[in-house]
Each structure stands twice: as C-alpha cells, then as structure tokens.
TrEMBL record:
Domain UvrD-like helicase ATP-binding positions: 10-337
Annotated family: Belongs to the helicase family. UvrD subfamily.
Keywords: ATP-binding, DNA-binding, Helicase, Hydrolase, Isomerase, Nucleotide-binding
Reaction(s) this enzyme catalyzes, per UniProt: Couples ATP hydrolysis with the unwinding of duplex DNA by translocating in the 3'-5' direction; ATP + H2O = ADP + phosphate + H(+)
A single cellular component GO annotation: cytosol
Purpose of the protein: Has both ATPase and helicase activities. Unwinds DNA duplexes with 3' to 5' polarity with respect to the bound strand and initiates unwinding most effectively when a single-stranded region is present. Involved in the post-incision events of nucleotide excision repair and methyl-directed mismatch repair.
Residues binding ATP: A31, G32, A33, G34, T35, G36, K37, T38
Protein name (record): DNA 3'-5' helicase
Amino acid sequence: RASVGPKYLTGLNPEQRDAVETLDGPVLVLAGAGTGKTRVLTTRIAHILSQGRARPAEILSVTFTNKAAREMKHRLGQMLGQAVEGMPWLGTFHSIGGRILRTHAELAQLKSNFTVLDTDDQVRLLKQLLQADNIDDKRWPARMLAGLIDGWKNRGLTPSQVPPGEAAVFANGKGGKLYASYQERLKILNAADFGDLLLEDIRIFREHPDILRQYQQRFKFILVDEYQDTNVAQYLWLRLLSQAPSKPAAQAAIPERVEDSNPDSPSESDNTHRPEMTERAAIAAASAGPTKNICCVGDDDQSIYGWRGAEVDNILRFDHDFPGAKVIRLERNYRSTGHILAAASHLIAHNEGRLGKTLRTEDQDGEKVTVTGSWDSEEEARGIGEEIEQIQRQGEKLNEVAILVRASYQMREFEDRFVTLGLPYRVIGGPRFYERAEIRDALAYLRVINSPADDLAFERIVNVPKRGLGDATVQMLHDHARKRRIPLFEAARAVVETDELKPKARGSLRDVVTQFDRWRAQREVTAHTDLAQIVLDESGYTEMWQKDRSADAAGRLENLKELVRSMEEFENLQGFLEHISLVMDRDSGADEDAVSLMTLHSAKGLEFDNVFLPGWEEGLFPSQRTLDEQGRAGLEEERRLGHVGLTRARRRAKIYFATNRRIHGTWSTTIPSRFLDELPAANVEITESKGGSAWGGTGGYGASRFDDMEAFGSTYSTPGWQRAQANRNRGQANGQGRNGGGGRGGFEEEASNFSSTSSSGP
Ligand code: ATP
Ligand code: MG
C-alpha cells in the first residue's frame, strides 16, 4: 500500500487507515469512544467514491440519528472538496427502511403514501381494539400492549412467531391475537408503525427473492455506525441485504412464518413458534452466500439501548455471522484529555460483561474530572450556570458546552436558569420545556386571565378542551372584534348577549366568559400557583389529558405539574408571565452560539470541550426504574451510560450531585450515585458548588469519602425542607454561612482523605 495517498487519508493512524482501505469483505471496527470510528466510516465513503468503486446511490450507510446523517454528508463534502449530491441511502434504519417499504408498499397491503404512526396514534388504535374485545383497559393498559408489540417487532417477530408463553402475559393469553388484529387494522388504515418500517421490509425480502436481489445488487457497500445498539430486526435486515446476490434460480424464497391475519399468503403448517434466535439461524442458513462489503463500527461499552431491544450480542457475534470478517481495533483516543479518559475507563471497568479494550491518549492529562455536591437541584443549576458564564468569559464558545441529563425533567431547571442569565441554549432531541404544546395551552389560559386583550392566547384555548366552538364561531368573533375595535374576549362577552350564535355554542361561550371573570376575581385573593391549579382543573384541561390514553399523556400531566411548581419561584402571575415571554422570545436559530441541553441517550456520538453531568444520585442515576426492571444488567447499562457521558468531553468533565431533589413535586433526600465511588481518586477533584447555598455549606461533601454512602443515607433521613430550615437556623446561630453541618455526622473527620478546594464563598 502506498504511504502517500489522497488528502483525506493523511492524519489517519495505521489501524484507521486499514479500516478505510479494506474495502472488500466484512469489516468490524470494534473500538472505544473517541477513537475515530465515525471518522473512519466517513473517510471510507470518501475513499469508495474517489476510487470509483461505487456511485453515491450504491452505498447504504446507516447512522443513528438524522442529524448524524446530515453531519456525515457535510464532512464528506469537506473531504472530497465538493458537495456530495445524491446519497439517497445515507440515513437512519427508519428512514431507509421506510423508503424501501414505500417502493413496495403493495406487497405489504399498503399504498405508497401510507402514514407512519407515532406512539400516540399507536396507543389510541390499540385502545380501540381492546374496547372492541371487551378487555378492561385499566387492568390491561393499551400502552403496555404497545410496549409488548414494539418489543416483538424489535426482535423481528411477526404475530405468528411470538412464543405462546410471551403472548400469554397480556389479557389472559390474548396478546398474540391482539397483535395480529392490530396489524390487520394498520393495513385498513393504510398505516405502519416504526417497527413495520423494517419488519415489513424483512418480510418482503424473504417472500420475494427477486426484490431482495435487486437491493443486494444495488448496494455495493454497506456501512453501519453505532452497531452495538442494533436490535434483532435491524440485524436481520442488514444480514439479508449484505449477502452477495445469488443467481435467480438458486435463490428460493426464504422460509418464514406468515401472519394468520394475512389471507393472501400461504400459511405454514407447523405450529412451532420460533423465537428470534432460530429466526436468525434460518436466515443465516437460507442466505449462506458470500458476504459482501459490510463495515460495522461500534463499542460494546457504549451499548445503551438494551431497553429498546438492542442486542449487544450482535457486535460480539459479528465474526461468526459474517465469516471471514476482519476485526480492527483502534486504541488511540483522539478526543479526551488523560484525566477524563482515565476516569471513564476506570468507571466502565466495573462492568463484568464486556470485551475489554485498551484506550490511550497522547494528549496531556489536562484538568481533573470534578465532582461537586449541592444542597438541592436549584443550587446545582445555579452553580452550573455560573461555571458556564465563567467559561464564556474566558472566551470559549457556548457551542462547546453541553449539559447531559439522565431524565428529561431535569432540563426545566436549567432552562429557567439560562433565561435568567441570558445564556442562549438549545435542547437536542425534544422541544424546550415551555414550548411543549400542553405548556403553551396552560400558559394561554394564564395569559388571558392576566390580559383579556391577549387575542392570540384566547384563540388558542377557546376550544381546548373541545367545547363546540369551532372555526365559524372564532371567525364571527373576529369580525365582531374588528368592527368594534375590541379584543376577542370582549367580543365574546358581547356576542353571548345576542342571538347570533346557536344556543349550544352561545351557552359554551358564555361559560368561558364567566369562568375567566371568576378566575380574574380569584386572582386578587389566591396565590398564583393555586390559581393556576384551579384554572387547569376547572377549565377541564387537566381532565382532557387524564382521559387521554396516549402514551405521552402521563408525561404531559407531569409537565403541567412541573409548570405549576416552577411558578413558585416568582412572586406573582405577572412576574412569572414576564419571565416566560423572555423564554419564548429567545431566538433559537440553529447557527447561534448556544449551550446544548440533552439526555445522555441523545448524546451518543457527539463531543464537546465542556461537559456538565448533573444529577449523579442514586435513584436518578443509576435510574431506580432500570434497576428494578433489569437488575444487574440494568446497572451495567446505566454504567455504560455514565461512560458515554464522560467520554463526550474533550477538555472538561464536571459531575454534580444534589442532596435534595424534587421529583414530580415531592422533595426527596438523595444519596450520591454509586458511580462516584467508582471513579479513580487520582483523576478526580472534589470541588464546592459555586451556586451559593441555603445549606450550611457543601464543605461536608467536599470532605467526605463517597465510599461511605451507607452512612450518607442514614444521616440524611429527615425530609429535605426540614433540614433546609434546620441548617438555615444553624447557619444563623453559628454566625457562619458555611460548614455549619452539625447534622452530617462524622464526615468532617475524613477531610484529609480527599484533596478539596474549599475556598470559594457563596
Ligand atoms: P464515539 O464512540 O463517541 O462515537 P468515535 O470512535 O466515533 O467516537 P470520532 O467521533 O470519529 O470517534 O472521533 C473522535 C474525535 O477524534 C473527532 O473529533 C475526530 O475528528 C478525531 N479524530 C479521529 N481520528 C483522528 C486522527 N487520526 N487524527 C486526529 N483526530 C482524529
Ligand atoms: Mg462515533
């Protein structure tokens, strides 16, 4: 191989270069975070194109998010020195699977314009099926069934393939039957859910070898990023596409089990229900031709989607599944400084089920990973806000700052803090808190109370929940308002005194006017938080979501609670709404220099100079739910999530925990995450919160050893607010704002065990 080559190859290390240039046969790049796996994939595409081995439309390249696909295209353009046009098969499993399904929709009893259902729709549909079958939705929630069906689809199982034992867990054995009727309903509605986008492809490929062959011929190269997070269905799909096309006569339909619900397909005679592993073997046997040029990259230590059916097994079995595979390991991490890498490696070393690999950096040690304790989550947000401002003052870009949370409800506190500080931010992977539909609705109610002339707000909620006040009514109110130059609300007040509206609509509208008048009167005598709760309840808005059975209704109700809670921080309704208008006003332009806020799960593959990791507390992280549901395996997955979080950082990684956190409105006392205990002391520095404290000081934590967590737990058993009060009193009595932690037991004694920078005052 020539040592000089095209420009895009320069700078790659020998192993990376090997992975780029080995174009023929299966290749697995199994390597840790930041070793250049994604960069290798992108360079490999550039290499294929510039060597003329394939045209853009002949390369199938799977990324984990749409954003990652755009990014890859952009980098590709930079490498080749020209924009890359026409890479139609560069995208996520869903987008590519959907594209294939649309082309052959009629083979799945769909039309090519079929709708893709979201979780909402999916649950609503299942609810109808349960009703039709007289199954009690309370005892057997539609959402649970949706989860089961998704799980089966992730494992590549059609209704007839679901093992009877598993189908039995729902509604006394009706699970499998319901899955079948659900599939039937989807066809009637000309709809598919996300799982179908791959499952139907797989079915079409198996039933129609000629079609499969077309795709096998088309895709000269297949590349997959984040292979450790593929599920069985994705694996089967890849496996089918990655076989070299056989001669037409030699390839018979791959035997499969056919859904009972499908009258057009021949039904198989034997009734053995094969779980997905036999399925896998069947496909392997039937498609035992030579494997084509498939290159997968991944890291078993970053497998974080087990709860969604990902099988880390896929990566462990690669050389078995793709015989003759070349496995390439990359060991040099180009992303993080020494301390960060050491901390991340040490943490993940506590997992048992792993292949184990070396990661080294030639970078400097850099700054130690910091761990900071705060009194509560508010102080945590304040402290992080201050640190970010400091980073900004040093001339660094906000684009290089990320906050990675375990649970999305943690975001609200940061969003509020940033607005107060005037720090631009963006939320990756979801809407910002105050932009969520239910929050906007609730705010609209409050705005109309605050200002009867707020026409936009009035129009938004006049018929939410539904009151029979449709577009015609609103149009009429508009006419009226325009003519008399009055707000919509006043127009409504006038109109209900006339007979311009039908009696029913008039009655509804009158109720709305009366309600708002009443709430406005109440405002004078009721705390604004109470008023908000009253308005949400009396308007029927809360009930609307309580009755809604869609998957995210519960989340919306939680958000509404969080909204009411967030109002506590303001003196009155006016102050709160002013704050909100500032939040909403913020320009969220994509090019803006802004802090990124996201969950650890959405942070996969990304990197930032500065990474903040708040909420490292037992119960939140590791998540209690994961521990309850998955035990040891769940704990290991949470630990991998921590590893992913730390390895996102280039230069600074900062971990936080709070002693008190309000979860869904209730204060809980928390103890530091066991993961803190698993960090290597040599690479970690305990620092104090810069957030200023209502608590007697964070010095106690700074001085403490995390491996004494049991003691932590038992020392802090009084409710948070009581302790807050006690500490405040103590602080005053002692005449000191900090280090007044009489309730912290024997932690001060251990001060010498940890290097602690305890100089910064509140
Ligand atoms: P993750 O597992 O987190 O997805 P990864 O293995 O995909 O990480 P990349 O994102 O491809 O790693 O690379 C990490 C960083 O290192 C990127 O900024 C990339 O540009 C840089 N990098 C990779 N290889 C080299 C190299 N040979 N020389 C210089 N920088 C490199
Ligand atoms: Mg990557």
